[in-house]
Amino acid sequence: MEARLNVFEIPTMTKAFKGIVAAGRATADSSVPAATLELVKIRASQLNGCGFCLDMHTKEAAHAGETSLRLNLIAAWREATVFTEAERAALELTEQLTRIADAAGGVTDEAWANAAKHYDDEELGALVLAIAVINTFNRINVAVQQPAGDYRLGQFG
Fold it and tell me: What is the DSSP letter of 82?
């Protein structure tokens, strides 16, 4: 499979990517655990069908010490016993923000209040930003049909 566009050869896209990547890096400086941020990126990518981002973030998470059990159960996080209550709150926020068009009014007050039990305002901001950034990358990669499977650890960073 070949991508419809080589996004790395289009000046407008490479210029925009610098800003999107910078926004994503800001979340890494937050106090939200790195594992939680990877779970969020993986779950949004599952929902959006972005193979490239799934390839990237599952490899990065595994390299950072995430277990294969937890990686394999992200899509079934509600039933899985391997996630903390804070991670569950972040995953629920991810699903609602990613599926914003499916829910009149967007993120429910209940989901927000649950997340706020586990994360302070700075961390909530970081989570919202991380979810928005991964959704942006998902949409670009899905649109251009970016192939998955060849990501190398640290390739973009």
Answer: S
